[in-house]
Amino acid sequence: MKIISLIKSCKHKPHLLQLHSFLLRSSHFHNPTVFLAFLSRLALPPLHDLSYSGRVFSAFPDPNVSLYNTLIRAHSFRRDSSRRGFQFYHELLHSGISSNALTATAAVKCCAKMESLSIGTQVHGRIWRDGYLSDSLLQTTLMDFYSALEKGNDACKVFDEMPEPDVVAWNVLISCYTRNGRTRDALALFDVMRRSDSCIPDDVTCLLMLQACGSLNSLEWGEKVHTFVLEHGLIGSRRVSNSLITMYSRCGCVEKAFEVFRHSADRRDVVSWTAMISGLACSGYGRDAVEAFEQMQSEGVSPGEQTFTALLSACSHSGLVDEGRMYFQAMGHDFGVVPNVHHYGCMVDLLGRAGMLDEAYGLIRSMRIKPDATMWRTLLGACRIHGHAGLGERVIEHLVELKAQEAGDYVLLLNIYSSCGDSDKVMEVRKAMKDRGIHTTPASSTIELKGKVHEFFADDVLHPRKREIYEMLGEIIQQLRIGGYVAEISSEMQRAESESEACVLSYHSEKLAAAFGILSTPPGTTLRIAKDLRICVDCHNFFKILSAVYNRRVVIRDRARFHRFGDGVCSCNDYW
DNA sequence: ATAGGGTTAG
Question: Beta-carbon neighbour count of residue A349 at 10 Å?
Answer without folding.
Answer: 23
